[in-house]
Amino acid sequence: MKNLLFIDSVSKNFGPHTALNNVSINIPEGCIYGLLGPNGAGKTTLIRIINQISVPDSGKVFFNDQELNLDHIKQIGYLPEERGLYPKMKIGEQAIYLAQLKGMDRNTARHELKKWFEKFDISDWWNKKVTELSKGMAQKVQFIVTVLHKPKLLIFDEPFSGFDPINANLIKDEILKLNKEGATVIFSTHRMESVEELCENIALINKSNKILDGNLDEIKKNFKTNTFEVAVNTPDAKDLQNKLKLEYETSAPTFKTIGDNLRMNVKLASGQSSVKLVNFLNKNSRLIHFKEVIPNVNEIFIESVQND
Amino acid sequence: MEKFLIITSREYLNKITNKTFILSTLFTPLILVGLVFLIGWLASTNNDEVNNVSVVDNSGYIFDKLESTKSLKYVELENFNLEDAKLISKTKSDFGLLYIENFESPKEVAETITFYSEDAPSLTVISNIENQLENILTNKNYKINDIDINKINSNKVYVSLFQETFEGKKTTKVDSAAGYLLGMFLAFLLYFLIFAYGGMIMASVIEEKSSRIIEVIVSSVKPFYLISGKIIGTSLASITQFIVWGILFYGFSFFISTTFGITSTYENNEFMLAAESSAVPEAALKIISSLFNLPLLNIFIAFIFYFVGGYLLFSSMFAAVGAAVDNQTDAQQLLLPVTFIIIIALYVGIFTAENPDGIVSIIFSMIPFTSPILMMMRIPSGVPIIEQIISLVILYSTVILIIWIAAKIYRIGILMYGKKPSYKELIKWLKY
Fold it and tell me: Do residue A98 and residue B217 have CB atoms under 8 angstroms apart?
């Protein structure tokens, strides 16, 4: 697949502090890309470089195979983590203003905004001021302003913070819809379950370095340890447990189920096959639960950061 | 460029639709004119009050010659001793009591005359009494010594210098006073405007930063366009304010001149005002006329150039400070050096008014941070054009340098939250 964004060996220093150290990332067109990392790892710096808010000390960024330039600004929509609106300006007016800054003309902006306001059922906010709205309400307006100019690349930094579950879901659905319509999405968040749910690709940044990136399924494949969750019901649990222990590396179970009397995690060594294990279990017991342990993003995140 | 216009027009519209701005634009001239009238009214009511001074004249020839004025009336108390006179004067709630002893020689009389009063009287009252007594007693002395007063008077010579510049322009004492006043006024106006509009810029930068909208905006436009749009938009608002003030002042002066019947004429290249009714005192007309005889075109052009230069200089510094901090309180501390510079300028300006071409004044009118204020004080009394040009060149080169530095600090500062940076850190930001 073609890359929409190619970050090539980007470094950035702030005085003695290195914010990014030789980071390279490919972001395929049309994907939802998770940008992960602990606080202070350098994610925001990278996002700001993509938005041309800061300039890298070395390295280049390519957008659609072109070196990043000012024309690309209108093709990018950015919802920063620290976001806000003018407190004393009317919602409608400032949404138009922000859209104009992204290169939309006044009338198109007004027209598109009306559509979005209707969609989110907030048309009566048009003449209100931000100080009259709750935080979640203001966030909705900010989301609309981010996506209004139909950018090719959408960058969301913690998009769900400040939303109640219903509105978070609404926003999530809109993001998925925009993605389906062709927008590439970069997602920076600490909510691993949304990464799990939404992202096809991820990159993990820790202490200014990229320590991991690629397709999420591939990464999971690399992180799995050939361990299986096993639960059975057998007349002689002790005997079966001993037999399994003899053949395989077993450990305490990390899951729950019901109707079993023997539960454990079984790790296969290289050369051992899961088919053989299943056959053995079927012969000696009634198999209740059999599932490969696949690490989730959270575990991958913690493991990678701790080992780094 | 298009975005720059969008930002400029938002900043402009935002300013001129602001309630405080509208009120201050409309009411400042009203308040100023009102103040002038109030002061005039207070002064005239103050003058209407008549103060009685009781006089005990034991010499027998002084009281007859004392002339009462509008505000000071002399009343004789006959044949009282000092204590009784004091008591009577006090019960009559007189302004004071003048007690004159009788002696042969006027000199001795002069040495013993005493003025008793409730409070310490004003200098003008005392000098009025003293002058009169001096004249009376001197004349008495002349008479005693057989000196012909008429001869003395007819031989007395009075001098009032004619003043003219080398270029042939006639000036008067009133002219330099008017220049002094106008210079002071313009310098303070400049100072006030620079601070008012600079403060607006700073507040608007801090608002964008503290409301956290800044990151969204700088992802759409370069910070340099944002800050220049802000500065230009605000200055356009200020120009709008000037124009409205100009129209209002013109309207008022038209109103006043038609009501009080003031006419203006040019005679021998001199601007003169004449009042048809006596409602306007002659001194005021003289001052106003001499204002028009100052190098007004030079003053006007210089004011615009120094205002724009000083405004750009200080507002970019204000913008940088606004970007470096999170709130107004922290800003005050970082602004201290800026305030300090302006105070020095005003302080030197006071010396300048005394001696517009002194070496200190000339030096400070070349230093870019103080030149706008100092030049406004010097120009009404005449500054060579070449000096003005040099000073403006220095000012505008510094403006470019400061804008460059301020833009760097601004660019970094707007995305920095948390602790207030030190000057050392600000300098470090220049290298980012």
Answer: yes
What mean pLDDT, rounded, does chain B reach? 81
**Domain residue extents for chain B:** 50-155, 165-429
Q: What percentage of chain B carries pLDDT values higher than 70?
A: 85
For residue A188, give both structure tokens.
């920076």
| Of residues B55, B56, B63, the one with CA closest to residue B137 | B63
Domain B50-155 is in which class?
A: alpha beta
B350 Cα distance to chain centroid: 10
HEC profile of A174-215 = HHHHHHHCCCEEEEECCCHHHHHHHCCEEEEEECCEEEEEEE
Per-residue pLDDT tens digits for A108-127: 999 999 999 999 988 888 99
User: What is the rounded CA–CA span in Å between residue B153 and residue B155?
Assistant: 5
Q: Which domains does chain A have, with CATH numbers?
A: 3-221 (3.40.50.300), 225-292 (3.30.70)
Which candidate, B195, B174, B187, B176, places its Cα nearest to that of B350?
B187
Residue B256 has pLDDT above 70, yes or no: no
Q: What is the DSSP letter of B122?
A: P
Give chain B's end-to-end CA distance (angstroms, integer): 25
Candidates A48, A76, A84; nearest CB to B213? A84
Q: CA-to-CA distance for A40 and A154, rounded, in angstroms?
A: 22
Taking 70 as the pLDDT cut, the residues of chain A under it are 1
> Rounded to a whole number, what is the distance in Å from the CA of B70 to chain A's nearest CA?
59
Q: How far is B402 from chain A (nearest CA, A)?
A: 21
Question: In this predicted structure, what is the pLDDT of residue A60?
Answer: 93
Please give the ipTM for the structure prediction. Answer: 0.82
Q: Do residue A84 and residue B212 have CB atoms under 8 angstroms apart?
A: yes
Q: What is the pLDDT of residues A11-59, one digit of tens each?
A: 998 878 899 999 999 999 999 999 998 888 899 999 999 999 888 999 9
Distance CA A229, CA A268 (A): 11
Collapsed DSSP state (helix, strand, coil) of residue A68: coil
The confidence score (pLDDT) of residue B107 equals 84
Q: Which of A51, A53, A85 to mutate to test the interface with B (most CBs of B within 10 A)?
A: A53
The string of DSSP letters for A247-276 reads HSEEE------SS-SEEEEEEPPTT--HHH
pLDDT of residue A156: 94
Predicted pLDDT at A204? 92
